[in-house]
Amino acid sequence: MTPEIAQPDALAAGTTATRAVKGRGRVPWRFLGSRALFYLFTLWAALTINFFLPRMMKGDAVDQYLARNRNVSPEAAEALRALLGLDTDKSLLQQYLDYWGLLLRGDLGISLLHGLRPVTEVIAQALPWTIGLVGFATVVSFAIGTIGGAVVGWRRGSRLDALVPITTFLGTIPYFWLGLLAIAVFSVNLGWFPIGKAYGVGVTPEWSLEFVGEVIVHGTLPALTIIIASLGGWMLGMRNMMLTVLDEDYITVAQAKGMPNRRVLWGYAARNAVLPQIQSFALSIGFIVGGTIVMEMVFSYPGVGKLLLDATNAKDYALMQGVFLILTISVLVANIIADIAYAFLDPRTRQTEA
């Protein structure tokens, strides 16, 4: 008799999630090393562009300062340029080398727009507001949209499908109008939330329950508008991926074996469908540091986005470069974390790219 050849189990062999469990103990060093080199090159290129791009603009921060202060002497103006690294006696290459020397020492320069304060101090003051508000809203929106999209995709054809066009429609409304509409309805007419700012006028920031509560009240309305504006994209993307995954053979085999629907949904279908969402989420996490400029303008919120806008208008090179540096590093770190998570969840990624 010819011995029977054991056939592989489609459920065990066909899912990314199952293969990830088998290979979880192996660290993909080669894959991570190649990605690290790529990101180091990307960081160098971004910082080089960060140096040259502002200097291609007409005028500089000192010119803007002189336009507002007519009584500054030419000697004081030249001293300011030398202090800001804009000394015309130095070549552009020498300025570039000095820029890297200061950068490697952690010196981001001084901000003329903020009274010659160190750029690190100015950014450190605005960064927590942006991360606390936009970061929280982005994570909540991603979680609700991904979980909701998985459920809607699993129960396709039901009344839950109506959530997708509703949330997508809300996401197509310009955020400027959505924020103003929220202020008009919930702040002006109903009086449920403050109109703007991160805390009340005359309040001194301090670590107390009263101040934290006021910050939460002031941040609730802008956070809700961010969640509503971005929810549709997460839900639509996850729902479409679920529809693709549900047609795979291993899902059919799992259901044929009598597995509970909850296990099939979250253990196999959603776990594989969420992979493309991870990269998008990493990009969103990275751009949190940049803040939502429109949101910060509408709600007069003291975040990094408004700080970057003010620095651009004033041509404050040091502040622009400092904000761009933080933004670049945050995007790269978020993508590195996404690559690591992707490599462990989907072994095919590290096998292909290593």
Automatic annotation (TrEMBL):
The chain crosses the membrane at residues 36-53, 126-154, 175-195, 215-236, 281-302, 322-345. Its main location: membrane. The keyword Transmembrane helix applies. Keywords: Membrane, Transmembrane, Transmembrane helix, Transport. It is a multi-pass membrane protein. Residues 127-338 form the ABC transmembrane type-1 domain. GO terms for biological process: transmembrane transport. GO terms for cellular component: plasma membrane. It comes from the Bacteria. It is found in: Cell membrane; Membrane. Belongs to the binding-protein-dependent transport system permease family. This is Dipeptide transport system permease protein DppB. It comes from Microbacterium hydrocarbonoxydans.
